[in-house]
Amino acid sequence: VSLRLIIRAGGAQDPADKSGVATLVAALLDQGTTTKDAEQIASSIDSIGGLVGTGAGSDLSFINAVVMKDSFAFGLDMVSDLARNPAFAPEELERQRQQILSELKVGYEDPDYIAGMVFDRLVYGFHPYGRPDSGTPQSINSITRNDLVAFHKAWFGANNAILAIVGDVSHEEAFAGAERAFGKWGHSESVAAKPVEPPP
What we know:
The chain is α+β, with helices and mostly antiparallel strands. It is 46% helix and 12% strand.
């Protein structure tokens, strides 16, 4: 069974002076919650032969999981925990920050990466799509745990999410499982507004 939770907020919703917040939030979702640390999350998904992944793009953040049918409830609970209760542990934040900075350093030596960044700025100007979703060394270094908590509080909620369930489950099982795992999830403070029209 494949589970995909999509949050309607990504790099375009980053604060103007802190590009990379959505990328860091997504990177930290599976690196510890208020109930499990990163190692417990990794070992528990490995123990059932499942997969979990997180990420963010310009307009969305996501959590994916793939589990066997007999672990369907476990998979839903894990996705729910990752989405609702991220710990944003300071040591994990620093580890992910260093990883992103290292990736940026490599990217800045890649002509394709540079061309893509310049292209986006030339096409979109100072519209949110013109900023790099992964941030810059300066913006990544300026992001605090409070920035991550604020982004999560603003955008992560049942009213701003879509859950897709595909695989060896009936629609009755899927709806009942989703209601059980996500039924008490509150609403986010923000809903993605239509962005400013990009330049012609």
